[in-house]
Description:
The complex is a heterodimer of chains A (474) and B (515).
Chain A: E1 6-10, H1 21-27, E2 32-36, H2 52-66, E3 71-76, H3 78-91, E4 100-106, H4 118-128, H5 132-145, H6 153-165, H7 168-176, H8 184-187, E5 194-199, H9 207-214, E6 221-226, H10 233-236, H11 238-250, H12 265-272, H13 278-288, H14 302-315, H15 323-333, E7 339-341, H16 347-366, H17 375-386, H18 402-422, H19 424-430
Parallel strand pairs in A: 1-2, 1-3, 3-4, 4-5, 5-6
Helix pairs in contact in A: 1-11, 2-3, 4-7, 5-6, 14-15, 15-18, 16-18, 17-18
Chain B: E1 17-20, H1 26-35, E2 40-43, E3 70-73, H2 110-114, H3 124-138, H4 163-175, E4 180-181, E5 191-192, E6 198-199, H5 224-230, E7 234-236, E8 239-246, E9 252-259, E10 262-267, E11 271-273, H6 276-287, E12 298-304, E13 307-311, E14 326-328, E15 342-347, H7 351-362, H8 367-374, E16 379-386, E17 395-402, E18 408-413, H9 418-437, E19 441-446, E20 449-455, E21 479-481, H10 496-512
Parallel strand pairs in B: 1-2, 1-11, 2-7, 3-18, 11-21
Antiparallel strand pairs in B: 4-14, 5-6, 8-9, 9-10, 12-20, 13-16, 13-19, 14-15, 15-16, 17-18
Helix pairs in contact in B: 1-5, 1-10, 3-10, 4-9
Amino acid sequence: MSAPDLLLCLHFLGGSARSWAPFSRILGGIPACLPVDLPGFGDASGATGFSIAAMADHVAGVIRARAPARFAIAGHSMGAKVALALARRSEDGEAGLEGLTDLVLISGSPPSPEPIPDDRRAKMIAWIDADPETRQREARAFVQENVGTALDPETEARAVADVLQAAPEAWTAWLEAGSREDWCRRIGVLRIPGLILAGSEDADLGADAQTALTAPHLAHHRIVTVEGVGHLLPMERPEALAEIVRAHWRDRPQADAARAAQVPSAYAALIGSERVNSRLRGALAARAEPDDPAYAPEALDPVELAILRAACARVLPAAGVDLAARIDTRLASGAGDGWRFVALPPDPEAYRAALRTLDAAARAAQGRPFTVLDGSNQDALLTLAERGALSVPEALGGRLDGDRMRFWFEDLRADAVRLWLGHPAALARVGFSGIGAGGDRPGPIADGLPGFHEVGLDAPEPWEPRATQAEVVR
Amino acid sequence: MNLDGMRTYRTDESVDAVIVGTGAGGAPLLARLAAAGLKVVALEAGPNFTPERFAFDETLADEIYWTEERLSGGSTPEAFGANNSGTGVGGSTLHWGAFVPRADARDLRLHTETGEGVDWPLSYEELAPYYERVERFIGVSGPQSYPWDPGRRYPLPPVPRNAPAQLMAGACDSLGIRWADAPAAVVSQDFESEGGPRRNACINCGFCHQGCRNGAKASMDVTYLPLALTHGAEIRAGAFVHGLERGSDGRVTAVVYIQDGQERRQRCGAVFLCAGAVETPRLLLHLGLANSSDQVGRNYMGHVATQVWGTFANEVRMNRGYPSSLITEDFIRAGSDFAGGYLIQSLGVVPLTFGNAVARGRGLWGQKLLDYLDGYNHVAGIGINGETLPCDANVLTLSDETDARGMRKAQISFGYSTNEERLNAHATKVMRDLWEAAGAEDIWVLERVAHTIGTCRMGRDGSSAVVDPVGRSFDIDNLWICDGSTFPSSLAANPALTIMALSLRTAEAFLAAGG
Lengths: 474, 515
């Protein structure tokens, strides 16, 4: 699959359709770009409807008017959140949006509330409808603060002019409401492939933020960090953007049939033999089914699921089973194991609070989200949790105290290991023979089951499987 | 179990007794009262399983555990669910380990002996005939000579000693500790149950805790419950009891329950609560009944059930064979600084149980966890069942959280006191020594609490006990309790055999009193 027929381009806060002009020129019509002025910006500065849903409606109208067969949406910053909302509508089957093939998210504002510091938000709201001189000065400063290296004078002048053209109500609406709208659960997990771009000099919406807050929504994505670039990639480096986008279309991230943990053939043969009863055979087959890479969490939100996946990768580093998704399924089913620590809230709530606390701890200690830390730094935080020493002030996002994190981490270890050891690949790995003690027999009292004749030391029966990894671990 | 052709009773007909729960407490007395010609109905909250479902898999066995949530607190919070709480016709005996030591006579008069704990309001001599009746009826396999009770005879020869048992026997020999094949309620030979199905000899599959597929294990659904049906008892599955109706004299007139989403009431002359040491007190606290002593929910006990695990050069394959096929009672009186004692058993467990213990109790995670699990076929354990004394701080109360029916959840606060701490320290050292003597490497200790005991203690005085020595409520004379909740202290022995013996004893007392 190559480039789509049409690329809708949605600008950032203070930008406009014109922000895309250099990029569009470089693409040279392959595909054709259709930059859109969002309500309150550019030539649409008189239009209203500033919520994410209203902006998405506006763009959906543009798409329907053109009725492209195959189209992509590039969303920049604010525009990325609108693009994600449209992608959800497309995947939900909304008429006229069926042809969406790709998302290109540039320094995107994530589906979750965007982490804009309160003082900066207040300052931006204050100057947008100040006197003309202040507006001119602050608009220029705004553009300059958002780039890695200075724009050429002509591009900068155009960018400043766009900011000044924006309707103050639209500007304020984004800062006060749109950027804070929580679309995390509504966007869910998308199957449409996505290219996620980040500037290395972007303080707030760089690669870390994209990994933590945007990538969890895209089952098939690629994250590319562009060196030396701040928040305004389409204007800072339009040629680099074009090159990355073209390369992406030549080689999209595969809808990889998530490499499921494989059951060795000898163990599979045991499972298939008459030593194993049908109910168990069916259950083992179901557990061995590959996990859906676009698994849509129900108890957790996609961002929390990503944190749980990262934690599970440290707690039980067995490839090929999405333990986090399976834990979420269990949490959503309401099925428990008959008890919980009284100190913890109900399981789904405990998981959510604990994962957010873990992430807050990473941010407090390392200034980075948990999901982007390397394994040893993640382990260090989990070790603190294990010891009851992971403590994050509530003001910094801590939701469970050290004792509760210790209880939760014990539950997590148990949940992960129980799910793993139910998987036939795990049973094969440890060489578990118990599944072969009996097959199907009619009646409530089974006659003639094989069971075990040998039960003593150093007396394996010939058919019993052996551990595949190690004989004795010391 | 097969309920076809079962006699049934109308709910507006007043039956002689309704029995709430079909486990070790309810089933024997159901059979005994039915055999005496009484009209009896058992109400079981769980479903009626057919053993065809028992599939040699831990996850699939979740359905036989009581998985409605309980809140566990205190300094040693206890796990419920698969650890000790069952559901279904047969109750917890569907998943029980069938390890059936009798109580040691001294444990019943612990206070007299040591000044600690309490005496039971009955003696071992009173219990012994009931033990013998139960062992004979359910088919207990065991040694032909029991070192700690030379006169005792078990009806069936022992089940084979599996690899953990062999390791423990060797270690005991080298340390001069006596051992014996474990008394197990698992038939070592094909066995004809009176009034029940022919049960096949144990096939050593190792899945006792996941439901026995061939009737070898003495769960109630292949023993006392079929016998009860042949004598005209009725068992209603999926019947969750949440109310008791009483007459103007305060006596129970009907039991109120939910079945198939409908609220129903069964009129009755008497009710027996046999729902276990969590659900029985929960129901009484929910109803505010039979509690003039203020003892309902108090003195909750779990056994000290610490385990020691180690890795052996030998191929152990601990999933094979009856899981706890060796016992020593040499430590029923062991330490000078604590009252009571403990028994030790050999242990083999299936993978999820093992992984859960390793992840929770050993705290392993990451590559270390995976590596350790890889050694599964070389691991064996030993564990204790140790005396827990009644304690004011250990209490079952109702949480402010409610279940799906709107009934408040049980909240259990449990922690060791000095006696349990000392006993545990003693036992841990003995077990470490044993496993070192056995040649184990990488030895580690799993702190664990087992069983559900206490909360409706029996006694001679209604001001300090909920029921009298035969299980009758002091407050409501046609309300009886028969399960682990009436135990005044935990005893070192695993509780189920004693619960069954008490169940027959309660039935006899009820019959002797004229019903």
